[in-house]
Automatic annotation (TrEMBL), chain A:
Source organism of the structure: Actinomadura macrotermitis
Keywords, in A-Z order: Membrane, Transmembrane, Transmembrane helix, Transport
InterPro entries associated with the record: NRAMP_fam (IPR001046)
Protein name stated in the entry: Divalent metal cation transporter MntH
Name of encoding gene: mntH
Domain of life: Bacteria
Cellular compartment(s): Membrane
Cellular component aspect of the GO annotation: plasma membrane
From TrEMBL, chain B:
Keyword line: Signal
Signal peptide positions on this chain: 1-21
Organism: Actinomadura macrotermitis
Protein name: Uncharacterized protein
C-alpha cells in the first residue's frame, strides 16, 4: 500500500511538474496562432521526452551516474565544455523566464508590477532549495502544478465541435495567410518546449538524489511513460483552450495574462484563480529545477561533489553555482527584457543544444559495461535513433528559421 | 580570447537585427507594413474585448483585468507609435497612413480609457467604456485584409 502510494505520488508529481513557462507560452502561442494544426508536433516532442527520460533515468538508476557526468566522459573535455556552455546558457535563460513567470503570476493576482516581485521570487527559490528536502520540494510543487487540470475542464466547458477538432488534429494544414517557415519555426519551439535539456538533467540527477537503484526501474518507467504523457495532456489542454478562445478572435499571445484568459472565459473567477495558482506552481517548480540543473551540470562536468541533499559545506561549489545562477537569472529579468521573448529565445537555443544532450545518453544506454543486461533493447534504440535524427534536424533548422522569420513575426 | 570576440559580436548583431524593423522603400512595402500593424492592433483590441466581456459577466478579477488591459494598451501604443514613425514613401502611402492612423487613434483612445477605468477600480464601467471595441477590431481586420 505504501509502495502504491509512493508510485501514485510520483506519477502525480511528474504530471504537475511537466509543465513550465516554455510549455505555457509555446502551447498557448501556437494554439492561438495555428489552432490545432501543430498538435502533432507536441505529441512528437512528448514521445521523444518519454523515450530519452526513460533512458536517462535507467542509466542513472543502473550506473549511478547522471547525464552530464556521461556527457564529459563520452564527448571528451573540450566538446563537453562546449556542451556545458551551451546547456548552461540555455538553462540560465530558462531559469530567468521561470522567475519572470512566478513574478507575472503574482502580478496577475496583486496588480503590483512583476519586476518588483522578481527579486522576491529569486530569494524564495533559493530559500526552498536551501531549506526544504528534495522529495518534499518536488512533491509540493509537482502536486500544486496539478491544478493546471483547470485547462482541461475549461476546454470541456467551451464545448468544442469534437469532430472538427479531430479533423484539424489529424489533417493539419498550414493556414493560408501564414508562411511555411514561420509555421516550422513555431513547430520547433513547441518540440523544444517538450524536450528541453534541463528536464533530463534534472530527471537523472534527481534520480541520483533520490538514490534510485536498478530495483527502482519500474518507478522510472512509470514516471516517464505515464507521468510525462499525462503532463503533456496539460500542455495540450493549454493549447486547445487558446485554439478555442484566442484563435477565432485573431489574438496573438504576447503575455502570460493572455495564456490564462480562456480559463476566465470558460470558468469565471474561480477557474482563473486556479489557473494562476497552477502557473505559479509550475513556474516556481521549474525555477527550482533549472536552478538546481545549473548546479548539477557544472558540478558534474568538473567532478565536484554535488547534490541538494549534500551538506552545503561538502558541496560548497555546487551551492555557489546554484546561487550565482539564481542571481544571474534575476538580474537578466530585472533588465526589463520581455519575459515571453526570453522564453521563446530559450526554446530556440535549447533546440540547438538538443543533440549534444541526447547523443551521449543514447551511447551510454547502449554500453553494456555500464548497463549490463539493462542496456537498450531494439525498440529503445530504434526510437532513440529516430529521435536523434529529429533533434539534429531541429537543431540545424532552428537558428536559420529564427533569422528568416524575424523570430516568428 | 580574441577568437571569441568576432563570433560574440556577430551573434549580438544578428540577434539585434532579428527584432529590427526595416524602413519602407516603396508604397507596396508601406502597405504591407500597414497591414501587419492593423493585424497586431486588432490582436490587442480583441484581447481587450474578451477581457471586457469577461468583466461584464463577472468572470475576471480587478487585478487580472488591470494587467491584461494595461498590456493590451501598451502593445497597441507600441504598434501605433512604430507605424506612425515610419516615413510614407509616396502619395498612395499617404492615404494608407491617414486611414490606418485614424483607426489606430480610435483604438488607442478606447484602450487608454479602459486602462484608466480599471486602475480606478471601475470594473462595472468597463463594458460601457469598451462598447466600441468589436467594431474597431472588425475595421482593423478589414483593413488588414484589404492591404495585405
Amino acid at each position: 500500500m505504501k509502495r502504491l502510494l509512493a508510485v501514485t505520488l510520483g506519477i502525480l508529481t511528474a504530471i504537475g511538474g511537466f509543465v513550465d513557462i516554455g510549455d505555457l507560452v509555446a502551447s498557448s502561442l501556437v494554439g492561438a496562432r495555428y489552432g490545432f494544426a501543430l498538435v502533432w508536433m507536441l505529441l512528437l516532442g512528448l514521445v521523444g521526452i518519454c523515450v530519452y527520460a526513460e533512458m536517462a533515468g535507467r542509466v542513472a538508476a543502473v550506473s549511478g551516474r547522471p547525464t552530464f557526468d556521461l556527457v564529459r566522459e563520452r564527448l571528451g573535455p573540450r566538446v563537453g565544455l562546449a556542451n556545458l556552455t551551451a546547456s548552461l546558457l540555455v538553462t540560465l535563460l530558462t531559469l530567468a523566464a521561470e522567475l519572470a513567470g512566478v513574478a507575472l503570476a503574482v502580478e496577475l493576482v496583486s496588480a503590483v508590477p512583476y519586476l518588483l516581485w522578481v527579486p522576491a521570487a529569486g530569494l524564495l527559490v533559493w530559500l526552498v532549495i536551501w531549506r526544504v528536502r528534495f522529495e518534499t520540494m518536488e512533491r509540493i510543487f509537482g502536486l500544486l502544478g496539478l491544478v493546471l487540470i483547470v485547462f482541461i475542464v475549461a476546454v470541456w466547458r467551451l464545448s468544442p465541435d469534437w469532430g472538427d477538432v479531430l479533423h484539424q488534429v489529424t489533417a493539419p494544414k498550414v493556414p493560408a495567410d501564414e508562411p511555411v517557415p514561420t509555421y516550422l519555426y513555431y513547430a520547433i519551439a513547441l518540440f523544444s518546449s517538450a524536450m528541453t535539456p534541463y528536464e533530463v538533467f534534472f530527471f537523472s540527477s534527481g534520480g541520483i538524489e533520490e538514490r534510485w537503484k536498478a530495483t527502482d526501474l519500474a518507478t522510472v518507467r512509470i514516471n516517464a511513460f505515464i507521468g510525462f504523457p499525462l503532463g503533456g495532456l496539460l500542455a495540450l489542454a493549454i493549447m486547445s483552450a487558446a485554439a478555442l478562445v484566442l484563435n477565432p478572435a485573431g489574438v496573438s499571445v504576447d503575455h502570460l495574462s493572455q495564456v490564462v484568459l480562456p480559463t476566465s472565459v470558460a470558468l469565471g473567477k474561480f477557474g482563473l484563480g486556479l489557473a494562476l495558482l497552477g502557473v505559479f506552481a509550475a513556474t516556481f517548480g521549474a525555477a527550482l529545477e533549472t536552478a538546481l540543473s545549473s548546479g548539477y551540470t557544472v558540478a558534474q562536468y568538473f567532478g565536484w561533489t554535488w547534490g541538494k541533499s549534500a551538506a552545503p559545506r561538502r558541496a560548497a561549489r555546487f551551492h555557489v553555482v546554484v546561487l550565482v545562477a539564481l542571481l544571474a537569472g534575476t538580474a537578466l529579468i530585472l533588465t526589463g527584457l520581455d519575459p515571453v521573448k526570453v522564453t521563446e529565445y530559450s526554446l530556440i537555443f535549447a533546440a540547438v543544444a538538443l543533440p549534444l544532450t541526447y547523443l551521449p545518453i543514447l551511447v551510454v544506454a547502449n554500453d553494456r559495461e555500464y548497463m549490463g543486461e539493462r542496456a537498450n533493447g531494439r525498440l529503445a534504440n530504434v526510437m532513440g535513433t529516430v529521435y536523434l535524427v529529429i533533434v539534429l534536424l531541429a537543431a540545424v533548422a532552428a537558428l536559420p528559421l529564427m533569422f528568416a522569420t524575424k523570430a516568428g513575426q | 580570447m580574441n577568437a571569441w570576440r568576432a563570433p560574440a559580436a556577430a551573434l549580438v548583431l544578428v540577434l539585434a537585427c532579428a527584432g529590427c524593423a526595416s524602413s519602407s522603400r516603396s508604397d507596396e512595402d508601406y502597405r504591407r507594413k500597414a497591414a501587419k500593424t492593423a493585424e497586431a492592433a486588432a490582436s490587442a483590441v480583441r484581447t481587450a474585448e474578451i477581457g471586457v466581456r469577461a468583466a461584464g459577466d463577472g468572470k475576471a478579477t480587478g487585478p487580472y483585468l488591470s494587467a491584461l488591459l494595461n498590456e493590451a494598451d501598451k502593445d497597441l501604443n507600441e504598434v501605433a507609435g512604430g507605424f506612425m514613425s515610419r516615413q510614407p514613401p509616396g502619395g498612395d502611402a499617404d492615404k494608407v497612413r491617414e486611414r490606418t492612423g485614424k483607426l489606430l487613434d480610435q483604438a488607442v483612445d478606447v484602450l487608454d480609457d479602459l486602462r484608466i477605468a480599471v486602475r480606478r477600480g471601475q470594473i462595472g464601467r468597463l463594458p460601457e467604456v469598451g462598447k466600441d471595441l468589436p467594431q474597431i477590431a472588425d475595421r482593423l481586420e478589414s483593413l488588414d485584409k484589404e492591404l495585405a
